[in-house]
Amino acid sequence: VTPDELRRVQRTFELAAADADRLATAFYDHLWGLAPEVRAMFPDDMAAQRQKLLDELAAIVAAVSDLDALVARTAPLGARHVEYGVEPDHYELVGEALVAALADVLGVRWDDETESAWRDAYDLVAETMLRASYTSGQG
Amino acid sequence: MDTTTTHAPAHGLGEWPFVGRADLAHRVLTALASRRVDGVVLRGPMGVGKTRLATEVAAGLGGRDVTVHRVLAAGGGAFAAVAHLLPAGTDTADPLAVAAALAEVLGAGTGQAVVVVDDLPSLDPATAGALAAMVVGGRVGLLATARDGERLPDAFAGLAGSERIATVGVEPLDERSSATLLHLALGGPVDGAAAAALTGPAAGNPLFLRELVLAAVEDGALADSGGVWLLQGDLPRTTRLREVVESRLRTLSEGATAAIELLALCQPVALEELEAEAGLAAVEELEARGLLHVEVVGRRTTVSLDHPFHAEAVRLALPTLRARSILRRHLERIEAVEPADELGRRQRIRLRLDAGVAVEPAELLDAGQRAFADGDLEAAAALLGPVLEDDPSWGVALLAGQAAFELGDFAAADAALGAAMAQAPTPADRATIAVTRSQVLLWGSGSAEAAIALLEGTLADDDLGDEQRALLSSEVGSHLVFVGEPEAALERLDWERRWPQVADGGTPAFLTALALAGRPVEAAERARAAAASAPTDVLPGLVARETYDVSLAFALAEAGLLDEAHAVATAGHEQGAAERRTLAQYWFALLLGRTDLLRGHAADAQQWFVRARAIATDAGLGAPSRSALVGLTVATALLGEPGATAAAAAELAAAPPFAFIGPETGIAEGWARLVAGDLAGARAVLRAAADDAERTGHRTTAAWLWLDLARLGEPADAVPRLDALAEVVQGELVEVRRDHARALVARDAAGLQQAGDRFEALGARLLAAEALTGAADRHRAEGDQRAASAAAVRAADLLARCQGARTPAVAAATDAVVPLTDREREVALLAARGLQSRAIADQLFLSFRTVNNHLQRAYEKLGINGRAELAGALGLDQRAGSAA
Fold it and tell me: Is B11–A2 a contact, with Cβ atoms under 8 angstroms apart?
């Protein structure tokens, strides 16, 4: 991920966070549309879950340009997701849902370069979560 | 501005991150742990990350209470790969004892066990056999890696296509994963220009990327500037991995260079020896540069180079005398310990030879004879060669000559056998040697005439017995096939009288002549009978059972039984490769290419012909390499690569003459002219070659040539000749060729349709696509739009599986349809049957992302919006029931 892309991700996240509720709702709607089977992994009442998502996203975006800080944040998160029953290919679906939700919320401010930056950054974040979570269990 | 490199040691030079493969690793792991498959073979190009993927999966299996055993395949002899697993005192000379001990060790745990074999192709045959039996029996799972294009050991070759052993293609990383890998490896963001300069040349190959990054960091071209990695100098200006590695190795200290040279020649090396030789600092330097792989087995710690590629690069650059002195010092250090078994003894003797240390001739002879008996031909040739210099007795010479011949070293074989003939005590011995030597002459110089002259000269000896005369005379007949006279060869061979033992079959040369002369069905039957009944020791020269399979595969292809021919040739090629028999590999590669041409698998055919040509070049097969060049010319022409076609045709024109299936040259010349835009010239060449083929009795070749003429727009001339040939030539292929030509003349939609159906049933997809394209045109002209579009869709479907082959007869169809790749098609077919992407990923062992990428490209090519339209676009609903 290039420094330009990281700045773009942080800038656009700030814009999207202004409409935080809509972002979280759109994310889960997209995720369940893409993978109905994962709905069962979440509670019926999603209000608390949406807040958790937004907090986590904000923390990750804040840390994304410092790899050590990022890994400190994402490694335990990745390990917890194994316990939730999340499988590696779910990461792809989550990425799609996130990109779609951001596009919804940002509207005309969403463009190809922004999408590419988010996809690259998400790939980095996903890899740090996945790193050895499913095999040797250590980074 | 301050430049710091604090991140590099922490993230970059330790273990390289594992990126982009978590999904695939998880699928492989789950499939093995749940016993959905008995084994997985990870296939891919060098450096793509097969070994790393296997290591990650193995670690995950360990976490699931699966016992993981590692086998050390390293090209050793019998059971070398599992020696470390066996209890002390196991008799490695007794295969049954080893197999039993192995079964006990691997089955010892309470739960499941998986054996990890890195580089399965170099596993010794004995271990492969024992392991395959256990895998098939469900007693142990297999997780193996294999470089693209390398043949699996015999015991696994047949299994790898089965449902229980999955072959998983490990593909290069996509661009996004490459960028992420770079970010994680360097421990921080990488400037866009730097990232592109590194990931571009690496093209998704993690090894290449790693070498580039390490080279750039080591010489300061890539540096961390205020938390961002920037290019601050020039990267190595090369797109070749070997050059990058070499430039990196040049910057090592003197001690580290000494250590790396010792490893390249002798690895694995005991850690104590390496430290004693090069010093601790040098070993640490190599480790810090990520060049070492340390292995602890029991109380021994051994060290190897991290990647086989590094060893190859060092060995290539090492001068001979320096290599010798390194080997000598290594020998001095290890001589104190006696080798444990026959194999260790053989390796020790070869090490002494390589080091230039004197070895007793008796010891060499004994080891050489044992190696020959074990089928370790390379060792036999290496050991017997030096014996021959001191003791040119005929027995030694014969053995050395046979080993050299099988390995494709014709000059050495001819010299050894010449010496053997001069010394052979009896006429019978001379006759036996003459038969072998005549084959060396035939294949080495391509001169059937010289081979025949040698045999005739030997026949002039008055002291010969009847049996030897028969042997020599029949061999003359064999060679006549290669003079381009199949009919004369059939008469001269007179095999029934001379070889009553194989009365149901015939010699391989006889069978080949029979197929060429138009009786391929009979030839195939006889080849089967002969292979089943012939005791190989009664046959002349070096006839091995597999030689019958050459005749069998050839005859099956000529009869039009293409899939069967392909299967026989595949098995033969694998065996030939496992035993390193040069001629066997050459012939089977050639037959595979030829069969793939007929099947319309143009790209596969091209690869087989390239391989055959490489074997021929390595072995110095002069004239016989023509057949590979013929195939290569035609395959590249079908693939629309005019430059490559012209190059192959020029190479063919310059190759020495060889009369074996000589008229096939016309097929190559014809297609080369067509591609060059000279349609009239193409037709003239095909017509002349077809006449020539008929005149010399190459009847199946003639039928091929006449149909090609018809395909290039002159069916009227071809029909009477194909009519006549179909009367005398056996097999369905000639009939369909005739019917196709007839229907072209008659502009008969139903006839073309039927020819297409029958070609497809034979597996000849390209010909089927041509016939059906013709049928669609005729239906359209006759106003039957429905039948026309059905035929067109089928033609496009067939053509899509021809790996990019294009001919004038399908050119019209081509414009309308961009073919799917094999993988896209495979994924699309499963999706059309209603499978979700994740299920497809599970079934094909692809990552979820890869499946979706393939589907997306398939939609674009087919011009559709999604899954719902797939079945229609693939023509599945028109042909319900037959497609799946």
Answer: no
The sheet with strand B39-44 has its strands ordered as: B67-71, B113-117, B141-147, B39-44, B165-169
A120 to B22: CB separation less than 8 angstroms, yes or no: no
Q: Beta strands B292-297 and B300-305: pairing type?
A: antiparallel
Pick from B23, B143, B186, B225 the residue to mutate for testing the A interface (most A CBs within 10 Å): B23
Tell me the pTM.
0.59
Report the distance separating Cα B757 and Cα B847, nearest Å: 36
* Exposed e or buried b per residue across B457-476, where buried means at least 16 C-beta atoms within 10 angstroms of its C-beta: ebbeeeebeeebbbbbbbbb
- Helix (H) or strand (E) run with residue B530 in it: helix B520-533
The minimal CB distance from B59 to the residues A91, A128, A135 is found for A135
Query: Tokens 């054996």, residue?
Result: B115
CA distances from residue B382 to B2, B378, B529, B622, B674 in whole angstroms, order as listed:
59, 6, 37, 24, 48
Asked if the Cβ–Cβ distance from B29 to A135 is below 8 Å, we say yes
Beta-bridge mates of residue B167: B41
Cβ-Cβ contacts under 8 Å for B169 (sequence gap 6 or more): B43, B44, B845
Chain B residue with Cα closest to A116? B176
Residue B775: pLDDT band with limits 50, 70, 90: very high
Q: Is B305 helix (H, G, I), strand (E, B) or coil?
A: strand
State the amino acid at position B511 in one-letter form.
Answer: L
CB B228 to CB A120 under 8 A? no
Residue B73 has pLDDT above 50, yes or no: yes
The arrangement of strands across the sheet holding B269-270 comes to B269-270, B300-305, B292-297
pLDDT tens digits for range B592-621:
999 999 999 999 999 899 889 888 887 777
Q: Would residue B562 be called left, alpha or beta, if left means φ above 0 and alpha means ψ between -120 and 50 degrees?
A: alpha
Other CB atoms within 10 Å distance of the CB of residue B219: 15
Contact B20 A137 (CB under 8 A): no
Measured between alpha carbons, how far is B430 from B455 in angstroms, rounded to an integer?
Answer: 10
pLDDT digits (tens, 9 = 90+) for B848-861: 888 988 998 888 77
ipTM: 0.95
